[in-house]
Structures are given as structure tokens and as C-alpha cells.
């Protein structure tokens, strides 16, 4: 019971940190090329992760863990950041944030496939209901906004769910912060090369908010958030704690409205409140 409670606390901290990712990315892509933003944030976080591993004198992961670490890297280090950065050229962060409501379902599905978890049938009812509400929003609003943006966001959700589940499974053996650090280090050589390749000719037009946003997605979204998130998933269960992601749209919409002055429509709020209610039922029947 204590471990499950600790898992939910760590997971909630991770969700709160991740809630600022899409608004920060929205600001950053106004000044940086999406590909440069993706590889630069990964390179910065990778250097920090390498420093942490060296300071802690962590042993190298076993050879058998490299495939899992590669999946984590492809999902959360490259795939999700790149696809969301591309999507945010077509849709607002407020619009894209609602798609995060699909992440719990994607994470739970991969938790079953990769983590061997077996939630009860009632769990899937609540999880599917929350996801259906988000999908309904996309059908009503997304197609009129940008089919390309919505397709990119859906792709981001799939690869992110896989990366979350795989990282959580590996965290049970390696530890939460170690998993994200090793995944970042594994991708660091390529990310550094691509950062140099996509290096802009000039940074003269980059605003201070864009620099702050780059710092946020590099330090918090790519590293610190995962320290809490992977620990929470490993302690409380992938499917169970993963439902906390249903709260992320609520925090994200608040940030989009207050910091970016983006419009938050009544239907966005309605969908957000509805999916938040689903987390209560899903948590009850997660195990």
C-alpha cells in the first residue's frame, strides 16, 4: 500500500512537470526549427544525464537491456518530441494537449504487452471511456483544425505510450532516473551530430521566452520529469499510475490559457473534466 501511494505521488509530480511540455514546445517552435529543437533538447539532456551517471558511478546496463533502452530512446527521446514539435506547427498547444488524454490507454496497452500487467475488465471500461471522449473531441474539433496536426499527435501518443511502458518495466531493475539517463546517453552521439547538422545560421531572432522554453523541455521535460514518472510507474503499476496522465490536459490547458493567452473553449474544458473523472474509476480497478 505504501509503495502504491508513493508511486502515485511520484507519478503526479511527473505529470505536473510534463504538463508544461507542449506549451513550452509551442513557444520554442516559433523560433527554432522543429528538428533542431528535438535533437538539441535531447543533446542537452543527454549531456546532463551522462554527468549524473558519472557522478553516481553507475554501472553500465547489461547487454540484454540495450534493446529496451533503444525503445525508450526512440519513444520518448526522439519520437514524441519530434512528432509533437511538428504537430504544433499546425495546431495550438491547447488543442494538442487534449490528445494527451489518450496516453493512459496507450500506456496501459503497452503495459500489458511489454510489462505483463493484467488490469481488471472494469479498468478498461473507464480507460476506454476517457480515450473515447478525447477521440470524440478530435473528430469534432481536430478535422476542422488540421488533420495533419492531429495525425502527428496521434503518432506521438503511440510511440510515447510504448516508451513509457518499456521504461517503467526496465525501471524495476535499473531504477527510474538511471533508465532515462542511459536512454539519453545511448542516443547522445547521434543527437550531437544532428544538432551540429541542423545548427541555425543565426540565433539573432530567437526571443528570451524561446530560450527559456528550450531550457524547460531540455531539463524538465526530457530529464527531471522522467525521474519521477518512471519511478512512479515502477512502484504503482504501469496501467494504474498511467491513468494520472488524464490530469495532464487540465494542467496543460491552464498553462496554455494563462501563459500563451490561447483560447480554451468550453468543449475543451468539458472533455478535460470528463476524462479526469475517468481516472477515479480506472484507478479503482487497475489491479
Automatic annotation (TrEMBL):
Primary localization: membrane
Domain EamA: 7-130, 149-280
Subcellular location field: Membrane
GO cellular component, one term: membrane
Keywords: Membrane, Transmembrane, Transmembrane helix
Family per similarity comment: Belongs to the EamA transporter family.
InterPro entries: AA-Vitamin_Transporters, EamA_dom, EmrE-like
PANTHER family: EAMA DOMAIN-CONTAINING PROTEIN (PTHR32322:SF2), INNER MEMBRANE TRANSPORTER (PTHR32322)
Sequence intervals crossing the membrane: 7-29, 35-55, 67-88, 94-114, 121-140, 146-165, 177-199, 211-230, 237-260, 266-286
Source organism of the structure: Devosia ginsengisoli
Protein name: DMT family transporter
Membrane topology annotation: Multi-pass membrane protein
Amino acid at each position: 500500500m505504501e509503495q502504491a501511494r508513493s508511486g502515485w505521488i511520484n507519478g503526479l509530480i511527473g505529470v505536473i512537470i510534463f504538463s508544461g511540455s507542449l506549451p513550452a514546445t509551442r513557444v520554442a517552435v516559433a523560433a527554432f526549427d522543429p528538428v533542431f529543437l528535438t535533437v538539441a533538447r535531447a543533446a542537452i539532456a543527454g549531456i546532463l544525464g551522462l554527468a549524473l551517471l558519472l557522478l553516481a558511478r553507475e554501472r553500465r546496463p547489461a547487454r540484454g537491456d540495450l534493446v529496451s533502452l533503444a525503445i525508450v530512446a526512440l519513444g520518448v527521446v526522439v519520437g514524441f518530441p519530434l512528432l509533437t514539435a511538428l504537430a504544433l506547427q499546425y495546431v495550438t498547444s491547447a488543442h494538442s494537449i487534449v490528445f494527451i488524454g489518450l496516453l493512459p490507454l496507450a500506456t496501459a496497452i503497452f503495459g500489458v504487452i511489454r510489462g505483463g500487467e493484467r488490469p481488471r475488465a472494469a479498468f478498461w471500461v473507464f480507460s476506454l471511456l476517457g480515450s473515447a471522449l478525447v477521440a470524440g473531441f478530435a473528430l469534432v474539433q481536430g478535422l476542422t483544425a488540421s488533420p495533419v496536426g492531429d495525425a502527428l499527435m496521434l503518432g506521438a501518443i503511440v510511440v510515447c505510450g510504448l516508451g513509457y511502458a518499456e521504461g517503467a518495466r526496465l525501471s524495476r531493475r535499473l531504477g527510474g532516473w538511471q533508465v532515462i539517463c542511459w536512454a539519453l546517453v545511448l542516443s547522445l552521439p547521434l543527437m550531437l551530430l544532428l544538432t551540429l547538422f541542423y545548427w541555425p545560421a543565426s540565433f539573432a531572432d530567437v526571443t528570451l521566452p524561446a530560450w527559456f522554453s528550450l531550457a524547460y523541455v531540455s531539463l524538465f521535460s526530457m530529464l527531471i520529469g522522467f525521474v519521477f514518472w518512471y519511478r512512479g510507474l515502477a512502484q504503482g503499476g504501469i496501467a494504474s499510475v498511467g491513468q494520472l496522465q488524464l490530469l495532464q490536459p487540465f494542467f496543460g490547458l491552464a498553462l496554455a490559457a494563462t501563459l500563451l493567452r490561447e483560447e480554451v473553449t468550453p468543449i475543451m474544458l468539458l472533455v478535460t473534466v470528463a476524462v479526469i473523472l475517468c481516472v477515479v474509476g480506472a484507478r479503482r480497478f487497475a489491479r
